[in-house]
Specification:
Number of helices: 7
Shape: globular
Structural class: alpha/beta
Distance between the termini: 27 Å
Largest sheet: 3 strands, parallel
Order of helices and strands: HHEHHHEEEHEH
Length: 163
Amino acid sequence: MNIASQSEIERLKGVASATYGISFLGTPHRGSGSATIGKHAYRIARLASKRPNIKLLRSLEKNSDTLKGISNRFRSTQQKWGIKISSFYEDREVRKFFLFHSLIVDNESAQIGHAGEEVSSIPKNHREMTKFTSSEEVGFDRVSSQLKRWVIEINNNYHRSGQ
């Protein structure tokens, strides 16, 4: 969104102005403690001659400068175009390294923190929270209800403007 809103490429220029809302599902806006664990795994993988992207892992750590910069640029784009935000967070832990369980992206990090942001949980862990197997699932209902509300708002605004 940030790149598209500042792009000189014709097909990208209109993306931000045509966007009514964005729903984030388990997005680590403020990073994840799991990135630190990933760095330890990186060291082990490096011994086995694999080459994970350590720069990416660093940028995903809690409160990284990279994530702060992305968030600040997004805030500017979001405010300029009046884009609605909804964020969903996992509320079930996932097992890591067979030793302990934790949330990959906690409630605080899953929220971007912009005014008017709507926040809700999906009763699954991070790996499963976007895998809906039925329209009867609580998570599916929450996400689809948000999207339906936005469609109603768009239609109401369209009819109010006399178009």
